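Action item from last week, closing it out:
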Amino acid sequence: MSILRSISVLAIAIGFASTSAIGQDGPSLTAGQARTVDRLIDNGLEDDVAYDVLRSLTTEIGPRMGGSDNEVRARDWGVAKLKKLGFKNVRIETFEMPYWARVSESAEILSPFPQALTITALGQSPSTPEGGVTAEVVRFATLLDLQAAPMGSLEGKIAFVDGDMARTQDGSGYGLAVQKRSQAAVAAGERGAMAALIRSVGTDSHRMPHTGSSVRGGATLGPIPSAALSAPDADQLARALDIADGSVTIKLDIQVEWRETTTSGNVIGEIPGASDEIIVIGGHLDSWDLGTGAVDDGAGVAITTAAAKLVGDLRGKPKRTIRVVMWGAEEVGLHGARAYAEQHADEIERHVLASESDFGAGPIYQLDTLFGDAALPKATPMANALRRLSIAPGNNNAFGGPDVLPIKALGVPVVTLRQSGWDYFDLHHTADDTLDKVDIDDLRQNVAAWAAMIYMASEMDGDFRGTESASE
């Protein structure tokens, strides 16, 4: 998952962006709508569907690397699951993408303190020559320090970019820390380095390195082999460099598989509405290969599927169609997100709202929107209804989620139900991303909030761009 990727660029591209706080006077729900919202919240807080979906996905499929055989099985799983839960118009929309997979990886200090180091290859890293590379390692405290190094100064060496990530509830520390993952290999390669190592982009202190894409967009291989050290191993290497009387030599061996093209796809199911307007929600079906993708992003798939089912279980049709998308190949370059925007360009005006759950399974604490100024009052009844779940009104500068960024850039309004990410980056892209890390009560709180939100978004008159609804 790339939580903060391109937020500023895409926000600028949307003409109706505003940072006004939610809370101004707005329309009220009817008495019947208010009762339905309360019933959806009550049902969500007792929901077992989300946990059952998540348990099924992580157990029956496991890791789901974009373009892999397991992702194929995950798509078939998604179709069967959506049909069983009563969704309509269930289908797979395929697209082509490159394929990267790790084969093997190892690192060790050869001198002066021989010992193994725990690493994981970064996505889109090329292979080292067979047998690996052996070279002196040079440490840089920050990415900026590496970028300030003279050209040619790393000829025949291995660059190591250190630097901690700040732990925050909203994940804001990620935006700064993740820059080294995509830029260290580029900067090191430009200066002649044979390979690049980084301290894992994470907040834990366990010997579990964090992987993630090293190339924005994931369309090509990186310039030089690159890998992430676990936090304790990064500390160990930094100490070795500090203590050593002379240089520290390491051996790095990374072998990968790369194909220019393979097939992936988005899994789609719908709760048909009375109109042809569409509310898009979902999570990404793929995951990195180290864990089972429970937190990133099996939880998002489970939460949004269960929430949509609760709305679908109500008597009568919602006013708008609720479309659940299990996006493919998010982790390796937002390939499914871009494909969805291209394949649905002719109906983009009928997309009245979009949102993705892609920040784990922690409790939701804030509602953010990105509505047109004239439509912003509609955020008020949403925010008021969610207060009973300890969810506060937020701002009108919502991110929406990685997989809705391409349609957000085309003008589709978005909502973010912000989850607590206090420990999210302890697990993110590691082997520790497993089902036992998910609290079922937090999952239920998410389902309750999502069900209430999408029901209200469906039933409100007019659109969220601030223009007259196409269905009116």
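Closing note: The domain at 7-98+261-459 is CATH 3.40.630.10 (Aminopeptidase).
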